[in-house]
């Protein structure tokens, strides 16, 4: 497994243990530190890769199946009005998705979650672990093939 020492995504799993959700076959899933959008997760490639087209078709399909599984579980757990998917990598050039449950009642609706500053919602370490455990349990229940 390849990693880059100064890449914040490569080191995220070690740096933020309370936010870890689950390690899947091709990706890892972590909660975003800011939980203003309840359930906001990162799904990131285990290997340091910058572009989706760098993956062969089989691996690319496996990665996308895992992204889809996480999105579906967040939808089922939190009942948002919409799931937002974002794959940019300009600031952290390591393939990672922002999977963001969005609600029509949130103050930034319908704009992108990053369109305006907002007050961060930080959880206690225990609250991160509980939220991560709920997502992990649902993934294991709904998508046991990913775990």
TrEMBL record:
Residues 7-109 form the HIT domain. Gene3D superfamilies: HIT-like (3.30.428.10). A motif (Histidine triad motif) lies at residues 94-98. One of its GO terms (molecular function) is catalytic activity. This is HIT family protein. It comes from Geomonas silvestris.
């Amino acid at each position: 497994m390849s990693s880059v020492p100064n890449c914040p995504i490569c080191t995220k799993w070690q740096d933020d243990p309370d936010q870890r959700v689950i390690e899947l076959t091709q990706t890892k899933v972590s909660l975003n530190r800011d939980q203003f959008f309840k359930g906001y997760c990162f799904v990131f490639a285990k290997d340091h890769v910058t572009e989706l087209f760098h993956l062969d078709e089989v691996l690319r399909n496996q990665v996308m199946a895992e992204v889809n599984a996480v999105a579906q579980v967040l939808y089922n757990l939190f009942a948002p009005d919409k799931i937002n998917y974002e794959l940019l990598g300009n600031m952290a050039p390591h393939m990672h998705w922002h999977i963001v449950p969005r609600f029509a009642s949130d103050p930034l609706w319908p704009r992108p979650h990053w369109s305006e500053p907002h007050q961060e919602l930080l959880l206690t370490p225990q609250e991160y672990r509980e939220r991560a455990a709920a997502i992990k349990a649902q993934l294991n229940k709904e998508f046991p093939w990913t775990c």
